[in-house]
TrEMBL record:
Keywords: DNA-binding, Transcription, Transcription regulation. GO terms for molecular function: DNA-binding transcription factor activity; sequence-specific DNA binding. Pfam families: HTH_18. This is Helix-turn-helix transcriptional regulator. The keyword Transcription regulation applies. Residues 1-24 are annotated as: Disordered.
């Protein structure tokens, strides 16, 4: 992978997991410690790059004439073609860096799934699958799951199946960023996402979220579910569980403290939610991530 990452110093945080290559699919985690120390990433040839923040928010700039810039928060993804160079800057610190999942999908499984590859006969042009920012929580969750699977030592069969599923998902008409009938607008979703991300460690009520977009509790819940395909409570809980995966894998912080830092009121509620979303307890997840096999 063509990346340049600046070194960090201090803190008890473990190093990010090494990159993993499954033949047609690769993944790793970039860590951007702050606005003054950008991370530079270049998509390899014959690959589609998929990037999403795992924790924190970041600003991304794509090379070009003129350069394009946007910001990303968890739940949003950046899909970029081969050869594209990106620069990431964040508001993170060396002790609490923004973490960005990188997935590199070879064009071959896309070709097999029916797209053709770049320039292939009858295939989709690469720009049809690329965007600097898209709200796609499902794709973001896939990227996070791939990072966790790589850390747990998933084998080549997993990688081949994941590459096929990912290619097929990308060929479905991209409608996630388009407001669904009766749902919140893209701007309203952005307001809600930013509020949740900024307040994930504390209590978040339905009234809090509804106030962001000036709707009643009832109308907000209905319109959010129509747009995001999950309830506000499910969305907040999923983001809290997703945000807990990183420190469980990379830090030595006690499990109970990780749960509280991610907004869970107690160890029991954290364990129940984590098991429901991930399939195992937080302690078991930490053990498997650090001692695969």
């Amino acid at each position: 992978m063509n990346t340049v990452e600046h070194p960090e110093s201090g803190g008890s945080r473990r190093a990010p997991p090494p990159g993993r290559q499954w033949g047609r699919l690769g993944t790793r985690v970039l860590r951007a410690p702050g606005a003054e120390r950008a991370v530079v990433y270049r998509v390899p040839q014959l690959c589609l790059g998929i990037l999403t923040p795992l924790r924190g928010r970041c600003r991304v700039e794509a090379d070009g004439s003129p350069p394009r810039c946007t910001s990303l928060v968890p739940g949003e993804v950046c899909r970029v073609p081969q050869g594209q160079t990106l620069r990431f800057a964040t508001g993170g610190t060396p002790r609490s860096p923004t973490e960005i999942a990188v997935v590199e999908l070879a064009w071959h499984p896309v070709d097999e799934a029916g797209a053709g590859g770049p320039g292939g006969p009858g295939g989709l042009p690469p720009e049809r699958l690329t965007t600097l920012r898209s709200f796609d929580p499902h794709l973001a969750a896939i990227a996070a799951a791939l990072v966790d699977a790589a850390a747990a030592g998933a084998d080549e069969r997993y990688g081949a199946a994941a590459a096929h599923y990912l290619a097929t998902h990308l060929l479905v008409p991209q409608t996630a960023a388009v407001p669904r009938p009766g749902g919140l607008t893209t701007h309203q979703l952005e307001l809600v996402r930013c509020y949740v991300q900024d307040n994930l460690a504390g209590p978040i009520t339905l009234d809090d979220l509804a106030a962001r977009v000036r709707l009643s509790r009832y109308h907000f819940a209905r319109r959010f579910a129509a747009a995001a395909r999950e309830s506000p409570l499910q969305y907040v809980t999923r983001l809290r569980v997703d945000s807990a995966r990183r420190p469980l894998r990379t830090e030595d912080t006690p499990v109970s403290q990780v749960g509280r830092a991610c907004g869970f009121p107690g160890a029991d509620s954290f364990a129940r939610a984590f098991r429901r979303h991930v399939g195992c307890s937080p302690s078991e997840f930490r053990r498997r991530a650090r001692h695969p096999g």
